Amino acid sequence: MITVDCVHKRFGTVHAVNGVSFTAGNGQVTGLLGPNGAGKTTTLRMLYTLMRPDHGRIQVDDVDAVADPQGAQARLGVLPDGFGLYPRLTAREHIRYYGELHGLSGRALDARADELFDLLDMQGIADRRTAGFSHGERTKVAIARALVHDPANVLFDEPTNGLDVMSTRAVREIIRRLRDQGRCVLFSSHVMQEVSALCDSIVVIASGRVAAKGTLDDLRRLSGQSNLEDAFVTLAGLNRERPTA
Amino acid sequence: MTGTPPPAEPRRGPRRQPSLSSRLRQTLVIVRKELRDAFRDRRALFSIFFGAIFFPIVITVMMNRVADRARDAEHLTIPVAGAENAPALIEWLEGQDGVSIAEAPANPEAAVEDKSVDVVLIIPKNFGERFSASRAAQVRIVSDSSNSTAQPAAQRVRQLIAVYSAQIASLRLIARGVSPSIGNPLQVLEIEVSSAQQRAAAVLSFIPLMLMIAAFTGGMQIATDSTAGERERGSLEPLLVNPVARGVLVSGKWLAAACAAMLSVGLTAALSVAQLRFVPLQDLGIRFSLGPHEVLGMLAAILPLCPLTAAVQAYIGTYARSFKEAQSYMGVLISVMMLPALLSSLYPIADRVWMYPIPVIGQYLLLTAFLGGRGPGILPFALSAGAALLLAIVFVKITTRLFRNERIIFAR
Question: How close does chain B come to A62, measured CA to CA in Å?
Fold first, then answer.
């Protein structure tokens, strides 16, 4: 369970996140939908505590993420916007490294790694160095190491960016499974179809503010548009910002 | 998957402080990962083993060359033209240690000019006649002062002739009832202050330089790759999402680089010393022994510098905008490390206590002292090691502060 309460973040004169509030519940997939530059990544970075909000409160389960970043991080599994791997380490070594940083070790860690390889269908690449991995394989390694400590809350920042059809399907399947296990899943995307296919609850972000939130049907009703894309454009105010388009 | 996520136990109140043992365990996890990564990295391996492989070869080649030249100078063969004109002089020369007489080439000037001989002694026909008449008898020494390799031989011949001349002069004065000291109002006594081992230190002065370079290059690749490299390949952001204190993270990376630097120094020292056993030092007139005592002393002098170089490199790697930029700073820094060794060959540094706490200079003074066979006291050791470690901790602290800076983490 993640609660964001009136969070602000400025970079110089740019008000990147301007009073965002929402709640992402357990056993639900919450989508953070917004155009590029809307403040999705900044919001997520404040959630996983790499950025400190100027104002506002963030709760991960019952931990105050601003006051106790490490406590919050222990409850979060995160696939950040950019996820580099170590080309000279194998997939298994990546997962072991993060597991050990979370305090896991020995047989428990080995078992957990094998579990993740099964879940993500990556047994074949588990003991290969990641140097020559495809983008899909790299994404799987990054997801696996993010989940090694069995976190109750999962944040994915544009997880399907640049993936081919099969890898995109695999990632969506993982997100559904994580939800079915009762976790709180929050992911950001600018792809409408993805959000509508996966999300139980949608938060539309535009220009650093929450433009709308609710279920898919709520959003359709709010915007008065039956087509989701039109609903998104109306809610995010994109049609007002570009009158000539 | 375990099925259900762990229940979130309610917890409020102040921020939890991770225990010391968990911080220590995380630090070791990071050290292990960075070292494993480095030992699969050709560039890192090269930077660790570069000194250990390259420097002993340099030592052998250079020392053998010096030894060959010293041997040549000791066994001096003098080509003489007209030896029959001064049998007594020739006999005296042959009686000197390591001197032998040879037939001069037909054209002495040409032979010296084309460097086929270093020096030729010419004794003219009228030598005996003038000598007997106690008039100044002439000898000619043909040498080429622009040929530096021939200088020791020519110098030696000049000295020999001068000594012979002085002896004859003394004998003649005595024969006339005059004390020879009248002809020598001044007597020059040269007093050599440097011990044989100190002379060896001069010859071997590049050992400190080598160890300095090893202390710098050993950890360089790890320190840069785990900071600037980590950010450049985008693995820093996911790494920072793990519940690890920034101080722990920086300490782990720093210790890994320091370990690599120490390994590099240890290997370089061990292999260089092993190599010195095969160098004919006695041919150089050097009574030189690098026993276990000296080697341990040198290691104790240089090893505390490794944590400092690693910390400075980690700071630069974190501060630099890119891996490339970090590397260009490293190039500048290594010249600073080499400066004391190079300067001291121009301006000999007299060691003063206040110099020991200055990093690099302190270590350099300690190393030279050990090579000279003078074991420095405890105080210089404590000062140089203490200052280096203290400064290393300062750099780790300010690197940790950089790691807390959002603009540094997200590459500005």
Answer: 6
Per-residue pLDDT of A97-147, as tens digits, reads 999 999 999 999 999 999 999 989 899 999 999 999 999 999 999 999 999
Amino acid at B193: V
Do residues B301 and B386 touch, judged by C-beta distance below 8 A?
Answer: no
- Say yes or no: A199 contacts chain B, CB-CB below 8 A: no
Cα→Cα distances B246→B226, B242, B395, Å: 14, 10, 14
DSSP 3-state of B92: helix
Give the residue extent of every domain in chain B: 20-64+198-409, 75-183
CA separation, residue A62 to residues A118, A181, B4 (Å): 31, 20, 18
Residue A58 and residue A1: Cα distance in Å, rounded? 11
**Nearest-CA distance from B224 to chain A in Å?**
14
Nearest CA in chain A to B7: A152
- Looking up tokens 């999705």, which residue turns up? A40
What is the enclosing helix (H) or strand (E) of B316? helix B305-319
A83/B contact by beta carbon, under 8 A: yes
Residue contact A103–B25, C-beta within 8 A: yes
Fold of B75-183: D-Maltodextrin-Binding Protein; domain 2 (3.40.190)
What's the pTM? 0.80
Q: How far apart are CA A13 and CA B31, in angstroms?
A: 40
CA distance A34 to A210: 9
In angstroms, the Cα distances linking B75 to A236, B72, B101, B204, B226 are 96, 6, 11, 24, 57
Whether B407 has its CB under 8 Å from any CB of chain A: the answer is no
Contact A78 B241 (CB under 8 A): yes
CB A54 within 8 A of CB A91: no
Flag whether residue A11 sits within 8 Å of chain B, measured between CB atoms. no
Question: What one-letter code names the amino acid at B36?
Answer: R
Considering only the beta carbons, identify the residue of A62, A102, A152 that sits closest to B5.
A152
d(CA A50, CA B404): 9
Other beta carbons within 10 angstroms of residue B176's beta carbon come to 8
**Angle B226-A143-A71 (CA atoms, 0-180°, nearest 5)?**
75
Instruction: Round to whole Å and give the CA distance between A28 and A240.
Output: 32
Structure tokens at B388: 């280096």
Query: Amino acid identity, residue B158?
Result: R
- Which residues of A fall within a CB distance of 8 Å from B37? 86, 88-89
Residues in chain A closer than 8 A to B410 (CB atoms): 50
Q: Which domains does chain A have, with CATH numbers?
A: 1-75+157-245 (3.40.50.300), 84-150 (no CATH)
pLDDT in tens, A46-93: 999 999 999 999 999 999 999 999 999 999 999 998 889 999 999 999
Give the integer Cα–Cα distance in Å for A112 and A117. Answer: 9
Q: Which of B5, B26, B37 sits opposite A89 (nearest CB)?
A: B37
Q: Among B215, B202, B195, B173, which Cα is nearest to B50's? A: B215
Q: Do A97 and B29 touch (CB under 8 A)?
A: yes
Does the beta-carbon distance from A78 to B10 stay under 8 Å? no
Token pair in block for residue B242: 């793990």
Residue of A nearest to B1 (CA): A115
